[in-house]
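1st attempt posting a full record on here, be nice pls
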Amino acid sequence: MGLKLIWAQTPDGVIGLDNDLPWRIPEDLARFRRLTSGHPVVMGRRTWESLPEIYRPLPGRDNVVLTHDRGYDAPGAVVATSLDDALAVVGDRDAWVIGGGTLYADALTHADTVEVTIVDRATVGDTFAPVLDERRWVQTAHEPAEGWYSSVTEGTRYRFITYGHRPQSQPAVDPRLQAPHAVRCDWGRAGARAVAAGSDRIAVVVDVLTFTTTVAAACAAGIEVAPFRWHDPRAAGYAERESAVLAGSRSTGGPSLSPGSVRASGLSRLVLPSPNGATTALTIAATGAEVVAGSIRNADAVARWCAARLATDPHLVVGVVPAGEGWPDGAFRPSVEDLWGAGAVIEALRRHGVTDRSVEAEAARQAWLAVADDPVGALRESASGRELSERGWADDVVAAADLDADGVAPVLVDGWFRGRTPEAAGAAGPGGGTVA
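the predicted structure (as tokens):
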């Protein structure tokens, strides 16, 4: 039997939203039909229910639906209550796993081939593709050879990549992922999935102006913070269900992406959307990584927390991720203040004995050292700092430059950043430590 997985994802790893695809690419659907026709297809209950009724079961294929509900009825399909049962139904035939996210992750260890369509767009999602471990998986084919295809319907760009098991004769790690260094650094959500994705990673997300700076200030004040994607209409309902306050615009005077607006707010819980830092944190958390909000304000506390975690588990990797920003056309824009914030954390890691860092991490550290004598002046003169100041929020720029003003490491646990004391991190394990 050969088990194969197939999915479409954005560069950030999004594969679905509200149990549906956030795009329509008929060429990808045609390829899906061509590859899976004549073979069993294994899917989770939610994927089965997302199919239009006229396509349930998918024609020309034996459909196997995986659910823990022993009484579940899926007309025209075989119901299995465990992955082992589903594989037993498939027997020695080649089969395809077609979703969703949890099933992909569970089935990955059984698979010999993964077919991935990369969809070149940024979109909100609530379901993510698993991260392919570079020690096992390698690209074996991709098309087109260069550039992208363009869909005839929406004009969305896409490409196809095939992954297979890495031959023993090939290096066990991809040098682009900065392995085998313990401290790595790369930009944005795509970089985060390269250097900070997976259950063996600590992802330090840095968005100095101003998501992670606000999170640091809030957690130091005992406030729990739930990151939320920008312009996600579900944020208000989530805040209401969780007895939290939804952050608004700076101009309202209430809690917002301004560190000063939360420090003395008296809140206990805050839902904080942001276009870069929050989205990066959620994207990488979906891979199983431990996510920490890093900034200039809490660089030392974050470094001490990471060092304590590494002391208990030397196999962990720290991926420091400057979140960056976006241009109006959606293109990624590296922002120097996030590079400085990442470098401040990496320099603090050095002081606490974590010195095995990649060249990329060292470059971020050197960038920080170049401005460390006057971070306020540097931030004020940066493009993002000048933009914020001209909009009337110069105080936020000054607050973001206040080195080590906050003594907690905000760790994302069950969807909420909670302030953790670095001293207790090693004893408590992942997400551990006491609330400050």
